[in-house]
Design a protein that fits this description.
This protein has nine helices and eight strands. α3 runs parallel beside α8 (203-214). The strands form two sheets. The protein has a five-stranded parallel β-sheet with strand order 5-4-6-7-8, with helices on both faces. A three-stranded antiparallel β-sheet has the order 1-3-2. The chain is 43% helix and 15% strand.
Length: 229
Amino acid sequence: MPTVKELETMGANLGHLRSLLHPTFRPFVKSIESRMVFIDLKKTIEQLKKVENYLAKEKDSLVLWVGTKIVVKDLVKTIGEKLGHPYVAEKWLGGMLTNFETLKKSLKRFEDLKEQEQTRAFREMTKKEKRIIQQNRERLEKVLIGLKELKDLPKIMIVVDPVYEKSAVKEARRKGIKIIGLCDVTSDINKIDLAIPINDESRLSLEKILENLARVFDKKFSFKEKTKK
């Protein structure tokens, strides 16, 4: 579990200008100085503990990780790959949860294209015909690669920056999926079931929090192998 001092060193307490503060976020505010909002890191740790306790009871539930911002997308991908959990790190496809049957058809189409590339018929096609199939497979792969394990609707969605991922949050709410959000001061906390207040632009802060969440499922989990590159 990180300490307040450790998180503060990472800049986890830095929010945005007061004008961007969402009213529902006020319980997580420590102070407002020179129009800048500072997050209460004691509350961050309290909320992190609550989330970890909840996840520990739901370790066997299907969890979907979502984070498509540049600052966090590789972290989300690493978590998904190491834990074998479904994840979205590139782009949220509209209707991914609310029109789940369409998503399953897209996944099947992706698998069919991969299999087609291994056939004799494919090898005998013209370069143009091959390229069309490859481009279609690559397009689907980019957005679906993290969803191969999503055999059914998830019970829990862990999302970084619910404001940025508003489409994902909206769909999860419509389907009754539990939403855990890493939230900055602009977030509407009423739309999140369990919020962890954090500076969602601080790479080190997000890495620390996400690593702690991932370790609920795998005590040995670490980003070190990836971040050293």
